[in-house]
Amino acid sequence: MIKKWVSTILLIILCYVLQTTLFKHLQLAGVVPNMLIILTASVSYVRGQKDGLITGFMCGLLSDMLFGSVIGLHALLYMFIGYITGYTYNVYLRNYFFILLIIGVSDLFYGFIYYVFEFLTRGRFHILYYLRNIILPETIYTMLAAVVFFKLFLLVNRLVVPGDVEEAL
Amino acid sequence: MKRRRRFNIPVKAILVACTAVCLVLIVVSFKYSDQMNPVKTAAGNVITPMQSGINSLGSGIYSVFDMFRSKKKLLDENEQLKKELEDIREENVSLIEDRNELASLRQLYKLDQGYSQYPKVAARVVSRDDSNWYNMFTIDKGSDDGIAKNMNVIAGNGLVGVVTEVGRSYSKVRSIIDDNSYVSGMFLRTSDTCDVKGNLTTINDGYIEAERISVDAEIEEGYEVVTSYVSDRYLDGILIGYVKDIVTEPDNMTMTAKVVPVVDFNRLDTVLVITKLKHSDELEEMTDYD
User: Which residues of chain A have a CB within 8 Å of the CB of B51?
Assistant: First the structure.
């Protein structure tokens, strides 16, 4: 139990640091992949709703404290992403493309909500522009990054939660 | 099969509890944004050194690759550069003369009390913000190096942005191309004022917007836009960029234009922070309205 959460917190920090430093060098089409979404959705898919929403909450809180203007907004958003993707824990369909699809949809949802809260409220109405230039490229890049990261996550998960592996994939 | 643990709190209960915590945090940080700053600073003090480390590791790896790739190229280049150096030595003499002339011309351009005399601290860009929506970044100097909130940040000879948050050994900078950024600017040659606003949709094409220029302003393409005297945060006379595509608004009251920033925001690795604040005492009161 303790081992599981310590490793999760370390993963969150690792993802955040990578996202803000190394991936800025590896930008494609001006965007970076959203590692925190990948982590939240992966945890939800592999360990279920409860773990997913707590991980999402912590991811969001970290992001809020370091770059947000209002603390709590991202925490709420990531937490709900964790909770909703957690429903897939009970779905029998278990394969690699399915988790990539979940991560893609989560990032799309994140991008859309973020646009509504932070841009639409300030009267920026060109949703198609933002969709084409930020939301969609970010989703595609996030899914690409997830191909590698999800494998790594399964390895870490196998070490800390031995029982759940057979259910995972 | 799921294993049952001793403390099995229902998922819905955790969801409701965390949602409540979030809503409280949102309300609190809206109302008391200043009191929440220590929390942000504490988190920043933990994470920034890690980012700094990874960043130098990253650039270290890059430089090793670079070394292998370019050793042969460097030898050829060395020969060529030695020849060039001879030419440049001659040129240098005439340039020194030009520099003296430039100094006197600057006086005419009102730039003499400009930013070259301000005390400055050099800093490295450590990380960018975590989303693709904003243009904020972290630098590796903080309150220990004498940096305070609202100080101006420049690079090369142009304005980069303003310090929005300060930790012990790091600070956050909001660049002028950020969607939330707003600078009151002025045309250097005519002293007409304008509002320079960052815009995410236009910066991809390499410009930001200048609004509310008076229709009477006699401006032309290529004129310099600098920070204005009336700005409450930016020291005056710092170059922002060059104006182009001036358009009169349909209401015939104001004009808008595009401003091409002089700073290349995609390749920003070192910046200078001007450690002099504009009207430091008045600013104390103004931060409440930030």
Answer: 17, 20-21
**Rounded Cα gap, residues A119 and B179, in angstroms:** 9
Query: What's the pLDDT tens digit per position in B189-219?
Result: 888 889 999 888 888 888 898 988 888 888 8
pLDDT in tens, A11-69: 999 898 888 887 777 777 778 889 999 999 999 998 889 999 999 999 999 888 887 77
Whether residues B23 and A76 touch (CB distance < 8 A) is answered with yes
Query: Chain B: residue nearest A139 by CA?
Result: B132
Q: Write out the two tokens for B166.
A: 């300060």
CATH number at residue A48: 1.10.1760
Smallest Cα distance from B132 to chain A, Å: 6
Listed by number, the residues of chain A in 43-72 with a beta carbon closer than 8 Å to a beta carbon of chain B are 48-50, 53-54, 57, 62-67, 70-72
Q: Which domain covers residue A121, as residue numbers?
A: 2-168
Amino acid A69: pLDDT? 73
Over its C-alpha atoms, chain A yields an Rg (Å, rounded) of 15
Angle at alpha carbon of residue A116, lines to A114 and A118, rounded to 5°? 60
pLDDT at B82 over 70: yes
Instruction: Report chain B's terminal Cα–Cα distance, integer Å.
Output: 54
Counted across chains A and B, CB pairs separated by less than 8 A come out at 124
**Do A19 and B133 lie within an 8 Å CB cutoff?**
no
- Report how many domains make up chain A: 1
- Domains (range + CATH), chain B: 118-290 (2.40.10.340)
